[in-house]
Amino acid sequence: MTDEPSRNEARTLTDLQATRLDYARRELESARAADLSQLSPSGLIFLITQLIHRFDDALAVTAEVFGRPQPDAPEPRNNH
Asked: SS3 letters for 29-77?
């Protein structure tokens, strides 16, 4: 660690970015509160898929704010 100030300045989020992060945060809180033992296998897959999309969107907001390019997301696998 150095005594140099961070190169990543604090930046204000746009309303859209803040909303996207808030949505992701609420989805995560909802998933944490869910009784996963009561979900069917397809319900679990749906929940995981939702969380993956929210996490990807949160990373995209981070990339927008800090100006870092985000790699393309891999195509979802089809197990059928």
From this structure: HHHHHCCHHHCCHHHHHHHHHHHHHHHHHHHHHHHHHHCCCCCCCCCCC
Q: How confident is the model at residue 11 (pLDDT cuts 50, 70, 90)?
A: confident
Domain that holds residue 57: 39-67
Examine residue 14 and state whether it is found in any structural domain, yes or no. no
Per the structure, how many domains does the chain have?
1
Question: Is the pTM of the predicted complex or chain greater than 0.70?
Answer: no
Which two three-digit tokens encode residue 23? 């949505």
User: What count of residues does the chain have?
Assistant: 80
